[in-house]
Amino acid sequence: MGRVVLVTGVARDLGRRFARQLAAAPDVDRVIGVDVQPPRGDLGAVSFVRADIRNPVIAKVIMREHVDTVVHMSVLPSSGSGSSSAAKELNVIGTMQLLAACQQSPDLEHFVLKSSTSVYGSSNRDPAMFTEDMAAKRVGGFGFVKDINEVESYVRGFARRRPDVRTTTLRTANALGPGLNTPTAAYFKLPVIPTVLGFDPRMQFLNDTDLIDVLEHATLTDIGGTFNVAGDGVMMLSQAIRRLGRPALPLPGFAVGPLGSAMRQARVADFSREQVAFLAYGRGVDTTRMREVLGFKPSRTTEQAFGEFAASIEPGVVSERRVRAAENALVGALGGNRDTTTSGELHG
Amino acid sequence: MGDAEIIPIGTRGKPGRGTGSAKPSSSARGLAPKAATKTATKNPTPKPLIDPIGQGVFDAPSGQVPAPRTPAEEVARAVHPAGARTAERQPTAGIPAVDWLAGFTSAAVEVFGADWEPRLAAFLAFLRRRLTGDYTVDEYGFDAEITQYFFMAAIRPVAEKWFRIEVRGVENIPSTGGALVVSNHSGTIPVDGLMTAVTIHDHAHRFLRPLGADLVFRMPVVSEIARKGGVTLACNEDAERMLKNGEIVGVWPEGFKGIGKPYSERYKLQRFGRGGFVSAAIRTGVPIVPTSVVGAEEIYPLVGNIPSLARLLGVPYIPITPFFPLLGPLGLVPLPSKWIIEFGEPIRTDEYDAGSADDPMLVFNVTDQVRETIQQTLYGLLMQRKSVFG
């Protein structure tokens, strides 16, 4: 008999695509999608249950359907409209209720949490690359960083109480992909991209299909534990903005916050406090464990994931095509017809 | 000027610049349009001409021979004879594109030399790659390209011309594999770190990866440049990670105690932290290269501090030197002391097993050995140095 999987947060694009892909996997009998809102697209073979995970209904669904695997991927930062306290209610209280329901279920064998690398926070005291056993340097934290840390600690508590359940936590980097709507994508789609003056953070990205693949891999293997998931390599924010060909608007650190909340009000982009810290200090995570223990290798590096995203949106004013054209014109005027693509690198 | 030549003097009544030939030069003809011929004959003395290649003003009738024209000048003249009327001579009348091109060409020859074409193309390709973000950084944010061609090029003249750094024992920096360069720290502003980095780059052809305090990463602009230049946070995780990857890691264990000590305590090593750098070296089995820098103490002699203001700004100290803040920004110019950087004989750590990194007694002993080596070398170098600015 195959697996019966319950997936939370299927109204979101990523959740819906993951649930559909999982339903097509040979070892999986049934996939039940849960969310408070109906999904925006086609769910295919996935059965949808419109329920709030804070509601006891969820426990009944898990019992009646003999769910053996729960994939919890509805822990999200507050979206543009919602306040951070509402997000906390959904994330922390929702996870508590879901775990309480799981603990009662005798059929449950696997629990997968889609966490985020935000769990490490961002500060000037951060090591270059976080490994899984490190914690956020700034204790306490705020907003989503605090939420996700609490969620993870509840999941660890659950793993202690139910040692027979394999528990996997995936700390994923910012997902980017063509057509994917996330706060990160909204930020990079701004015509002029605000940055923190004098800081150039390191960032890692994960291609959206890689994110879905790693969730599927973690759901179907028998390996438990906590894993960082990100594309190989890092990019600087300045580099990413240049690849988009968009102008950057460096603002002093104290001005980014107010601008962010104004944009949040206008629902243009999401700038929470932790987002501002991330734009100043950045973050990198070590993915050795993902490759060696979990046995997953992302198909795209950070640069490739960003490149695919950049190709899918309209290029900015300083696009690569224009820069190349200007260069060709200049070289052509000075030295006759020369092809810059064949010209050598600097100093040989 | 020994061999005298017979030079015809004057223009012999003809307008133009006394080339001595019967035919006036093209520019001379341009200067004397037909309408002005009569005036020219009435007053055969032309006005002083300004030499177009900037050798000064000379008077044509006083009989000096102009320098031979350069080929570029000749080209410019041929393609664009001087306008005859004032209206034609107005700068807004437009310099033809050909002239601009000739100008650019000669400028390019000046800057890039004879093979300017491929080099200019390469330079433009470099600009394009920077502008479109087509480069890679390593996981610490180190941008090798900009460091090599920009940061190093900017620091190098200071190292060679201003501080006249004398380098000793460069063979002690391994050409491959990891090593931990441990150095004394001084000079109010960490200029010694920059100088050690450029010295290792130029003499040992390796990039130094310095470890910086968390304050570095809190300061705007400084944090951005530091990451791109290869600095990472001074913590055990980063140090071990870099050493494992075979990098040359630079550490200044005295920290702010060393760099911000008063001038009266110059060349007296402060406490070497908690020896974290030694345990990182033992865990990764890389050699420790004790490095002594002489000269950095004198660049900004620290004679005072404003602790209250420092606390307010959250920095370790606000320096007062004999010239800062008295002379304002001018006081920020470092004094041109003579520097000596000596890389000492490496201290091997690969014979200890990895577990001994947690043995505090061993770590203290090795820390002390490194500290003593640097202190003794400093005294030795000071004895050899003739004077501070020598």
TrEMBL record, chain A:
Residues 5-183 form the NAD-dependent epimerase/dehydratase domain. It holds the Pfam family Epimerase. PANTHER family: BIFUNCTIONAL POLYMYXIN RESISTANCE PROTEIN ARNA, NAD-DEPENDENT EPIMERASE_DEHYDRATASE. This is NAD-dependent epimerase/dehydratase family protein.
Automatic annotation (TrEMBL), chain B:
InterPro entries: Plipid/glycerol_acylTrfase. Residues 179-296 form the Phospholipid/glycerol acyltransferase domain. The keyword Magnesium does not apply. CDD domains: LPLAT_MGAT-like. The keyword Translocase does not apply. SUPFAM superfamilies: Glycerol-3-phosphate (1)-acyltransferase (SSF69593). Keywords: Acyltransferase, Transferase. Residues 1-53 are annotated as: Disordered. GO terms for cellular component: membrane. Residues 32-44 have a biased composition (Low complexity). It comes from the Bacteria. Pfam families: Acyltransferase. One of its GO terms (molecular function) is acyltransferase activity. PANTHER family: MONOACYLGLYCEROL_DIACYLGLYCEROL O-ACYLTRANSFERASE, TRANSMEMBRANE PROTEIN 68. This is Glycerol acyltransferase.
